[in-house]
Predict the 3D structure of the following.
Amino acid sequence: MDKIKILDKSFSLFLDKKKIKSSISEIARTINTDYSGKNPLFLTVLNGAFMFASELFQHLDIDCEISFVKLASYQGTDTTGNVKKLIGLNEQIKNKHVIIVEDIVDTGITIDKIRAQLEQDKPASIKVASMLFKPGKFKVGHQPEYIGIEIPDDFIVGFGLDYDGRGRNLNQIYKIDNE
Ligand code: 5GP
Ligand code: MG
C-alpha cells in the first residue's frame, strides 16, 4: 500500500523494504570490518530501534554482545527536548567498545545525552549506528558514525518508528502528507 492513515494523519510510502534492508546490510558490512576482533557491545535504544536492530544483527558475523536500553523523548510529531534517563543497562561497559543502535537521529539531543551518560562508565569507545538521519534538523553533538539513509525534515513512521504509539509494525517507511 502506498498510502496509509494512522489516527488523524495520512502518510505516503517513502522508503520501501528493499531500500531499507540494503542500507542496513551496508552498515553491517562496515561494522563487520571495523569491529573484527573487538567484541563490541551493541546497545539498542527501545522502542524505535527494534526492527533496525533485528535486521542489522542478522547480518553481523563478528563476536559481539547485544543488549537493549530504553528512554523516551518524543510525543506526537513534536520533539520536546525533554530527554529521560537511560534505563535497563545491566552490562558493565567499562573498557568495552559500545555501539549505540538508534532508529533516527533528528536534532541529536537524545543521542548526545545517551553518549554523555555512557561515557561516565568509561567504555573503550562509543559509536552510533542510526538507521535514519535528518541532516537538516541536526544541531547537537557528533553525527552518527554509521548512517543508513539521510532523509529530509519530514515526520516519518514505520519500521519501528511510531506516530503516537502506532505504526511501528509497518515493514516500510512512510512520510506524513502535508495538509
Ligand atoms: P532527537 O533527540 O535527535 O531530536 O530525536 C530523536 C528521537 O526522536 C528518535 O529516537 C525518535 O524517537 C524521535 N523522532 C525524530 N524524528 C522522528 C520522526 O520523523 N518520526 C518518528 N516517529 N520519530 C522521530
Ligand atoms: Mg529513538
Summary: The pocket of guanosine-5'-monophosphate (ligand 1) is lined by residues 48, 73-74, 79, 102-111, 155-157, 161-162 (CB under 6 Å). Residues 17-34 form the longest helix (18 residues).
